[in-house]
Amino acid sequence: MEFNHFHLPLNIKIENLSFRYNRHSEIGTAVLEDINLSVRAGELVAIIGLSGSGKTTLLQHMTGLLQPDSGRVLVDGKDIHSKNVSLSQLRRRLGLVFQFPETQLFAETVFDDIAFGPQNLGLDASQVASRVNAALLTVALNPPDFIDRSPFQLSSGEKRRVAIAGVLAMNPECLALDEPTAALDSTGILAISHFLKAFHASGKTVILVSHNIDLIARLATRVVVLRAGQLCYDGDVETLLCHQDILQQAGFALPRARCVVNYLVELGLANKRNLISVEQIKLHLTEIATTVSKQSIG
Amino acid sequence: MLQISNLHFSYEQADSAQSTLNGIDLSIKAGESVALIGPNGAGKTTFARCLNGLLLPTQGDVHINGESTKDRTQIIGIRQQVGIVFQNPENQIVSATVEREIAFGLENLGIERNRMHAIVDNMLDKFNLTQYRQHAPHLLSGGEMQRLALAAVMAMSPQIVVFDEPTSLLDPANQQLVLSLIADLHRQPVKDDHAPISTILITQNPEEALHCKRLLVLNQGQILFDDKPDVVFRKTDELKNVGLQVPAEYEIADYLKKCGQEKSTFDPTDFQRYYAESLK
Ligand SMILES: Nc1ncnc2c1ncn2[C@@H]1O[C@H](COP(=O)(O)OP(=O)(O)OP(=O)(O)O)[C@@H](O)[C@H]1O
Ligand SMILES: [Mg+2]
User: Fold this and answer.
1) CA–CA dist A217, B74 (Å, integer)
2) What separation in angstroms does the CA of B149 have from each of A27, A99, B90, B203?
3) Range name among A279-283, B76-80, B189-193 with the lowest pLDDT average
4) What does the pLDDT read at residue B16?
5) Shortest Cα distance from B163 to chain A (angstroms)?
6) What residues of B are in contact with residue A49 (Cβ under 8 Å)?
7) Does A182 sit within 8 Å of B168, measured CB to CB?
């Protein structure tokens, strides 16, 4: 069975990758220069950087949509462009959520759009229907309200959710997402972030390109910063947040929650700075309150 | 200048039970800077499309300077007075070069050639696009394209500019750029008989709404709140109920209050001053 060597999580290794769009005279096109990056199975890696820094181009190399000018992309040790690797098999394992959801939508109804992938996997009608249903629920859309509608007559946030659902319905073993939360409301962001957390917790690999520093701070086990086609940081989130210069080069400011923490510390209401989300702050404030009340009792 | 009364809109025929916009009453004065937030599918984009007559009310009216959008003889004037900058500028750019894109609307208005060239030059200069004047718009970066979309809208000297999530596809540096372009519109010296410009910023990012003087919250086609951002964001629970997040400082202030620390020294507006200082 061909599927046999595909039940292991994915390791992606990029070796000395260089790439330049050969449509000459283009301005602002991303160029990648001698990138070395290894994503180990089970990691949740965020890629950040200014627009034009090459994030999308890098993601497209990882998923085999682009072929490097030089260097290699290895998935579980095999060069994905070598003859004995099937790119269509790879794309089946590795779900890619595109930057512009419109590019991913095509069918007449939301149902058909999401069902397309599972149908191609050879699932029967009831299995397909349950995949569609589950995928819609994951992106916090109520299936009966949406399955019969045209994906082109949805609001921008609804379109993005449907595009994401289409990828999730394939039950990929690894996910690469390009700006998955752009245009989503808080409910949508929360739904995606819960899903990614669970997906990652089950040992699967996630590569996340995002401008949403709060999302990254909450989810990523590792952050990679691209600047003008080169890697300029590769490490954990906390260290990055302590390096304002690199953060700024990537175009980011500190997450607002972190600034709130700093202010609370200045007011003497908190005594820990390395918090990154509102939830963590609340927890910390509660801890302080309990210690104080214990002390006053004791 | 903008008067909306009992605005209903439905994409389906009138018989459908629930319409997309469900009775909006609202007026916006010259010079106001308004933010509009609301969940996905609340009707924000639909609302924007109703303001310049791209969509017509199925019930109620939208008046721009006294003219109804339903009066088709006024439509050119209304399109000139209400400009819209969309989330994805690629979808709204029609011309082959940057300068032609800026000239496009002016040509349609039948503006005389010399004046048109003067306006185009002025817009290229103002939005820092002169070096790209002969470039094809689709080769610009996201931030540049958003600048071009705004330049093309501003060339028409509109009275109202609606921004439909102009920052959601941009990196943080370009997000800041677009926000400062919007702020600049309010700092412009007002010309002779022109009223100061009004802006409506549609956004999913509550922090961006803090840059505006007035905040509208739209939910299921109805205006839920209409007040200063600082007043609205203090209603943390009510916003959460419709799935909207408040900026971190409001959530923490609310939490402290719920923990019985009513007299806490932490206040969102103090934090915002501290935050603005820290960015300098
Ligand atoms: N062309 C269309 N035909 C039919 N229904 C539509 C069309 N465009 C939008 N809708 C529906 O109308 C409702 C309001 O959509 P609208 O685009 O105004 O929402 P929005 O507040 O802008 O949402 P978002 O935050 O996702 O951009 C949604 O339920 C949407 O599915
Ligand atoms: Mg919209």
Assistant:
1) 51
2) 18, 20, 9, 17
3) B189-193
4) 58
5) 13
6) 171
7) yes
Is there a contact between A282 and B255 if contact means CB atoms under 8 Å apart? yes
CA distance A169 to chain B (A): 22
CA distance A119 to B60: 46
Task: Report the distance separating Cα B225 and Cα B222, nearest Å.
Answer: 9
- Token output for B152: 């093309």
Contact call for B252 and A187, based on CB within 8 A: no
Per the CB < 8 A criterion, the answer to whether B48 and B28 are in contact is: no
pLDDT digits (tens, 9 = 90+) for A232-262: 999 999 999 988 888 888 888 888 999 999 9
Rounded distance from Cα A153 to ligand 1 centre (Å): 7
Question: Nearest residue of A to residue B91 by CA position?
Answer: A102
- Here the tokens at position A130 are 């349950």
Task: List, for residues A90-129, the tens digit of each pLDDT value.
Answer: 888 899 998 887 788 899 999 999 999 999 999 999 999 9
A211 three-state secondary structure: coil
**Residue A80 near residue A73 (C-beta atoms within 8 A):** yes
A94-97: strand order across its sheet? A94-97, A174-178, A205-209, A44-48, A222-227, A230-235
Ligand closest to the CA atom of residue B40: 1
Q: Given an 8 Å threshold on Cβ–Cβ distance, is B168 in contact with A154?
A: no
Residue at token pair 């349609």: B108
∠A16-A52-B166 over CA atoms, to 5°? Answer: 150
C-alpha B41/C-alpha B49 separation (Å) is 14
Whether the CB of A158 sits within 6 Å of ligand 1: yes
* pLDDT tens by residue, A187-240: 999 999 999 999 999 999 999 999 898 899 999 999 999 988 899 999 999 999
The CA distances from residue A183 to A74, A114, A157, B47, in Å, are 33, 20, 5, 17
Distance CA(A161)–CA(A139), nearest Å, equals 6
Best probe of the B interface among A23, A55, A185, by most B CBs < 10 A, is A185
Q: According to the model, what pLDDT value does residue B174 have? A: 83
Tokens representing A216 are 């990254």
A125 neighbors A145 (Cβ within 8 angstroms): no
Cβ of A252 within 8 Å of Cβ of B172? The answer is: yes
Q: Is B49 in the pocket of ligand 1 (CB under 6 A)?
A: no
Residues in B closer than 8 angstroms to A186, CB to CB, are: 39, 204, 243-245
* B8, amino acid identity: H
| DSSP secondary structure letter of residue B73 | G
Q: Please tell me the predicted confidence (pLDDT) of residue A5.
A: 46
Distance B149 CA to ligand 2 centre (A): 17
- Do A44 and A174 contact (CB within 8 A), yes or no? no
DSSP labels, A161-205: HHHHHHHHTT--SEEEEESTTTT--HHHHHHHHHHHHHHHHTT-E
Q: How far is the CA of A155 from the centre of ligand 2 (A)?
A: 5
- Residue B75 main-chain phi, psi, to 5 deg: -65, -35
Scan for tokens 């923990």, then name that residue. B259
